[in-house]
Amino acid sequence: MPEPLPSTALLSTELRRTLANAALFQLGWFACVFSTSYPALIGVAVLALLCHFIFIGSWAREGKLVVSVLLAGSALDSFLLQLGVFDFGEERRLLPVWLALMWALLATTLNHCLAWSAKPWWRASLLGAVGGPAAYYAGSQIAGVSLPLGQTFTLGLLAIIWAIALPLLHGFAQLYEQQFRLRQTRR
């Protein structure tokens, strides 16, 4: 016998959370890229992250994912910076805080507004290949980040990286969700 469909109220609540998650991510993304001109906007991005944990997700459920994505993404972008893929207009060894914060914001979307792209894996790969370079390009235009290796080469490289990275990030999200559920059943 098939499971009954969830109530309309439940769908409505889940849809509101998904839309709120997407809106908070976009707010945080724009705050990050515009913070290069208006540094106080970093606070708006941090507030968007906090609102996610208060109203949509929870630190207990997603904190490990957010920290993992923040660290892995920051390491990846710092590596690309050292390879000369990005130029922030000053000598740097590590990426700027605003770019690292974007990775934390991205992590909040994996179990929510981007959950649809997790399975099958090729959805995440396709979204990563298109959306990753598009976000970097738009961000570079707004934040004044140059792409010294050339726009076409850089966006192609980012497409390959993101076609691999987004499915991997979804894998971490699924693993951590399973671990969280297992801990809940043991209580």
TrEMBL record:
Transmembrane segment boundaries: 27-53, 65-85, 97-114, 126-147, 153-176
Keywords: Membrane, Transmembrane, Transmembrane helix
Pfam families: DUF2878 (PF11086)
InterPro entries, per the entry: DUF2878
Protein name according to UniProt: DUF2878 domain-containing protein
Lineage: Bacteria, Pseudomonadati, Pseudomonadota, Gammaproteobacteria, Pseudomonadales
